[in-house]
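Structure request: WxcM-like protein, Flavobacterium lindanitolerans.
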Amino acid sequence: MNIEIIEIPKIEDYRGNIAVIENEVVPFEIKRVYYLFDVPSSSYRGGHAHKTLIQLLIPLSGSFDVMLSDGKEKQVVTLNKPDKGLLIKPTTWRELGNFSSGAVCLVIASEVYQEEDYIREFDQFIEHVNQS
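Returned structure:
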């Protein structure tokens, strides 16, 4: 599977912790940042793969599951700690679901939005993987 858990440095303090995301933490140049919030627990987000884009998903609050596929195997990763992010490399199918109440998913991306980079149908994803 073309994924990795990234430890996000944190500064612990009795008044509350601080997580720090700097260039050394993210293994690509950051070109886009967005976040998902107010997602109903019965809803799914994602449902696509990218040809070249790399993403780092961080659960700022609450928890959610990331269902992943590389075309051969499937894996589910639960994200629920704001100092651990999931790095998803290109050609990895992803669906996000099982959002807890108040969950917020921060997404840091290696590219700006480009529709042509998306593979939105799973059958086309499998075809793309088999051609690679």
